[in-house]
Amino acid sequence: MFDLEKEIKEWKKGFGKYESFEDGLIADMELHLREANEVLKAEGLDNEEAFRKAVEQIGTAEIIAGEYHKNRELALDRHAPWRPARFMPALFWNYVKIALRKIRRQKGYSVINIAGLAVGLACCALMLLWVSHEKSYDRFHANRDSIYRVIKETPNNDKTMLDARTPYPLGPAIHEKVPEVLNFCRYQGFENPSLKYGEKLITLTNNFGTADPSFFEMFSFPFVQGDPKTALIESHSIVLTESAARKFFGKEAPMGKILTYIGGWGDFKVTGVIQDIPENSHIQFDCIVPIKDIAPGKEIAENDWKPLFFYSYVQLAPNSTAASAAPKIAAVLNENIANLKADIRLQPLRDVHLKSNFEWDLDNYAQGSQSTLTMFTLAAMGVLLLAVINFMNLSTARSANRAKEVGLRKVSGARRTDIMGQFLGESVVLAFIGLLLALVLVFAGLPFFNELAGKKIAFASLFDPSLILGLMGITLLTGLLSGSYPSFFLSAFQPAQVLKGGTVSGGRRQAAMRKCLVVFQFALTLFLVMGSAVVGRQLKFIREKNLGMDPRNIVTFFLPLEDDPGAINAFLANPNVLSVTRSDPPQMEQRGTPDVAWEGKNPGDEAQFFPVTVDANYLQTFRIGLVEGRFFSRQFPSDATQSLVLNETAVQRMGLTAPIGKRVTIAEDAYTVIGVVKDFHMSSLHRPIEPMIIRAPKFHYFMCARINPTNIKETMAFIEATAKKIEPRLAEMPFKYEFLDDRIDGFYGAERKVEAVLGLFTAIALFTACLGLFGLASFLAEKRTKEIGIRKVFGAPLSRLIWMQNREFSIWILLSGLIAAPLANYATGEWLRGFAYHVQPGPGVFLATVSATLLVALSAVSVQSLRAARSNPIEALRHE
Amino acid sequence: MISKTLMAASTRPIILAILSRGKDYGYNIIQKVKNISGGGIEWSDGMLYPVLQRMEMDRLITSEWIAVDGGRPRHYYQITKNGRQALAAELTSWQKILQAMMQFSQPLAVEE
């Protein structure tokens, strides 16, 4: 009897033999067969005949399977079923789940990894903020690309000296004679001006600017009231910033109001109000007046080419270049000053803030430094790199945990690239979690950083599209870099080996790689530590160096005065005023004169000498030593006009063997050398002691007093009252004074900033590196649990067990020290070259830093070693 | 008797043409081909399914299982937008071939 179901079952078995027939396909065939069978039966065939015919019509399984096989080959070629789809990988969520699970299960390692990356990224974010702030200086001017500052370059004692200040008549002269110069503007700012409106006297914190009327045509400072084209044309007009106007006038309308300058420049009428000057402008002022109101006939004569006091800015015509204009400007300058062989550099406006490392420059604004910026950017990247290495080391070290996962994925058909993609993805996810944390860190740390760097950077500026995209780019790169080695390493596991339970993490190659990375990490850290140590030592050296004079307890103040013994005695009447001298206070800036001749001078010698004006009490007040001859004295009235004193460097520079009594001429005036003083530092230790010519003219602008350090407040009140009694004009303005040691401290503001920021980075770097070492140590200790247990059973003492674990780390760190020391020696040497007087960092500094770092690192490691060494051996050995 | 090569070349356009009239299932497709060609085109039934699978892979058609009237489920195939475009292209090609063949097959005009 024919059984259809049985026959169909048998027939289906024929298909089952071929693997290209999946269940669904066989179902298709079966349905077809049944349909055909029914139709044939309806046509009159009996059961068996209908079945046989239908089978015949369908064809043989072999041939059909062949066709299916072709399809399958093609599909495999196109797209394996286990491979992720193009846009949303099928296993994507699985990867995310696994990554989150790993973070949860290995909290310690995750914290080290994420915290390290977050700190590194936060450092980078801060640097990005800082760099973009520094680079944004003066970019807001519409004419930023055509404005240049005129820099004078003159030879000075075998070097070239760069001076940002140029003679007053230079601007108009080059505007007339040099076709490239489309417009010019001279500018200078005076610190802390006092102005009076009615009875209201206000001392402004920013500068009292003076400039040509073209100032507002060339520079873009937006006006709130008034007309930029005419604001500075009228004599005795003044333009105020909004906040300055508010200080004087409150809610009154400022235009047309009169302000009186305390100090004798007269009254000024308000002709304009501008928006407050942005922080990223190198020109800073609270108010600005026409330059002619203070310059010609007052401070400087209209056609006097000698004094250098103003900054000249030029706007070049379209299609003309600085290279073609500069020599023409130099020619104009040299034409007008006898014996001058100056060159001119035109400094683009955008370079003024960061690239103005000139001897003489605006001293009343905070300059940026390209080299400091580069240094800190590298330091920030270094910290990030340390975190990346931590990540790599810990991931490869902990890889045994994931070996089985990799093995299973591979067995299920994952290819090596899939595994690599998974691990890279994981590290990128971790990096982005780190970024979120980094943003929190930046938000919390920015005020602190602003204080260190002396900036006012807002957190919101980080969300400027280019910055945040840059930061995300860095994060992505960090993630990829951190994941690169682990993913490469983990994806190479052989599934058969790992699933059988073979060890994978102890491979010699991986261990060697880990060692190299740790050594590199510590070399980098030690480099920073060494750099910090040298910077610290140099600053200590500066603080403690004998300057050849005693700068403590000396107060300097403005008091224009003819020679007047009565005035001096008025100060000395107070026993707390120990000594008084009328002289220039030591300062950052000194300007030399080449116009000096002496007996035996080589005609080609262009030596520059630095004039210092003093009175008879100078040596006593500053406690400077006399080498030979005598100092100025009241007993010799001719001293004021006919005598001078040299310092040791000047004697050496002139090549004089017996200087006393020698004739020296300055310009046309002849003097006799009456004495030689010991060398002393007039300016910062960045510069060598220059040859000085000390004279004692009758008139002086400044007075310096050495006072008793007890009761300073009362003494200062006395000095103020006395000064105002002597010079009644001072009575109406606030009394300004400065302590000399504060002033000298101010010379090294930039270095202190370097010390602080570098110190911060070093601490972070050391912390990050130790964090990594700690993680690695705990892994290694874990791995050696059994070994330690056995050793303990055989009686090894605790100290030996700890040493056994720490020995390797010590060797790594010492090796890092060997690598870092020469590099740090070179780099700090370059930095120290910026100082004429500096420490010689011998091997001692490097040895000390290596020892200190070793100590810190070993204490991090020892926590783990101690724990492993103290664990009960039974616990360790019972594992099996 | 249609050659094997021509049969192979014509399978896909014919299936597309049938499906362009509405969704259909394997057995019915075969029947329609037989009926319309008066038995002139005869496919081996089993060979239809690999072709349908391949067309689905190429996204010319889609398929779904539908249970009709509570009876046994049937595997229905439906033409896609891609399939319609492919069909139009095939038709143009076949017309061109046919046109060329027809023209060359006409007797040469005799010059008087």
Characterization of this structure:
The complex is a heterodimer of chains A (about 900) and B (about 110). Chain A has about 900 residues and is of the alpha+beta class. In chain A, the strands form 3 sheets. In chain A, strands 1, 2, 3, 4, 5, 6, 7, 8, 9, 10, 11, 12, 13 and 14 form a 14-stranded mixed β-sheet that branches. In chain A, strands 17, 18, 19, 20, 21, 22 and 23 form a 7-stranded mixed β-sheet that branches. Chain A has a 4-stranded antiparallel β-sheet with strand order 16-24-15-25. The two termini of chain A are about 65 Å apart. The mean pLDDT of chain A is about 85. Chain B has 4 helices and 3 strands. Chain B has helices at about 5-20, 25-35, 50-55, 80-105; strands at about 25, 60-65, 75-80. In chain B, strand 2 (about 60-65) and strand 3 (about 75-80) form a beta hairpin. The interface of A and B includes residues 39, 58 and 71 of A.
Chain-wise SSE layout:
The complex is a heterodimer of chains A (880) and B (112).
Chain A: H1 4-16, H2 23-42, H3 47-58, H4 61-78, H5 92-105, H6 107-135, E1 147-156, E2 159-163, E3 165-167, H7 170-177, E4 181-190, E5 194-197, E6 200-203, E7 208-211, H8 215-218, E8 223-226, E9 237-241, H9 242-249, E10 258-261, E11 266-274, E12 287-290, E13 308-316, H10 322-336, E14 343-348, H11 370-397, H12 400-411, H13 416-453, H14 465-490, H15 495-499, H16 508-544, E15 554-561, H17 565-572, E16 577-581, E17 596-598, E18 610-613, H18 618-622, E19 626-629, H19 639-642, E20 643-647, H20 648-654, E21 663-666, E22 669-677, E23 692-695, E24 700-707, H21 712-726, E25 737-739, H22 740-746, H23 749-783, H24 785-793, H25 798-832, H26 843-870, H27 873-877
Parallel strand pairs in A: 7-12, 9-11, 18-23, 20-22
Antiparallel strand pairs in A: 1-2, 1-13, 1-14, 3-13, 4-7, 4-13, 5-6, 5-10, 8-11, 9-12, 10-11, 15-24, 15-25, 16-24, 17-21, 19-22, 20-23, 21-22
Helix pairs in contact in A: 2-3, 5-6, 5-13, 6-11, 6-13, 6-14, 6-23, 7-10, 11-14, 11-16, 11-23, 13-14, 16-23, 16-25, 16-26, 23-26, 25-26
Chain B: H1 4-19, E1 24-25, H2 26-36, H3 48-57, E2 61-67, E3 73-79, H4 81-105
Antiparallel strand pairs in B: 1-3, 2-3
